[in-house]
Amino acid sequence: MQKVAALADELNIPHFPSILRCYLHSQFHPADPRNPDNIPLDKCPFYDGKIHVFNSACSTFFAPSDLSGIYGMRREYIRSCPMWRDGGPRLDCVFVVTDPQMPGMRGLDIARVLCFFSFKYLGTDYPCAVVHWFDRVGDGPDEATGMWIVRPGYRARNIRNIAVIHIDTIYRAAHLIPIYVTHNVDSQDIGPHNSYDVFHSFYVNKYADHHAFEIAF
Fold first, then answer.
1. CB contact burial 48-80 (16+ within 10 A = b; e otherwise)
2. b/e for 131-153, b at 16 or more Cβ within 10 A?
C-alpha cells in the first residue's frame, strides 16, 4: 500500500496524479464528449490517498473456438511486475475495448500495462491499470501479413501517452511481434524484459491462438 505521489515516483510518471484525476472525472461523467486533455484539472476530483498495487490480474473471457476451455470460457493471467523470474520487469500488453460497437481491431486498442492498482473514493472501489497506449499504423491490417501494425504512442514533447483505465475495459492479453530493421540486431542486448522498449513498431499477432485470430482482424 502506498500514496499517489509514491507510485508516481516508482513508475517515473510525474504527471500520474493529474492522470488519475482525469480518470475520476471520466468515471463521474462518462458522457462528457471532451478529450480528457482539454478538461481543466480544477474540474476533476482530487485524490491523494492510499493505493493498493498488484503484480497481476486475471482475465476471463468467452472463446468458443478454443477447445481447451470449459464451455468456451478461458482464463489467463496478465502480469505487470518490476521483476519476473530474476530477469527484469514483465509488463504485458493487452487488448482494450475502446468502441464496443466496432468489429475487430477497429473497436480495440493495444496498451502496455505499467501497473495494476486499486483505490477507494467516496465509498466506491476502483480497480485500475496504468497503461501506455500504442497507436495503430494505417487504416487496416498489413497486406502482406494480415496483421495490424502498432507503435508506442507519444504526446507532444515526446511524452508517453499514458492513461489510467478501468480494469473492466481490458479484454485479454495481446502478443506483439517486433518489426525488425534491416541492420543486424545484437541479441545479447535484447530480452523479454526490454523488447517493447527496443523496437519502434510491432505486429499485433492474431496467430497467437484461435481467439486472437477471431478478434484481431
1. eeebebeeebebebebeebeebeeeebeeebbb
2. bbbbebeeeebeeeeebbbbebb
How does pLDDT run across 10-46, given as a tens digit for each residue? 999 999 999 999 999 999 998 888 887 788 998 999 9
pLDDT tens sequence across 118-177:
999 999 999 999 999 999 999 999 999 999 999 999 998 889 999 999 999 999 999 999
- Provide the β-strand partners of residue 57: 78
Instruction: State the Cα–Cα distance between residues 131 and 201, nearest whole angstrom.
Output: 17
136: which 3 cell numbers? 495503430
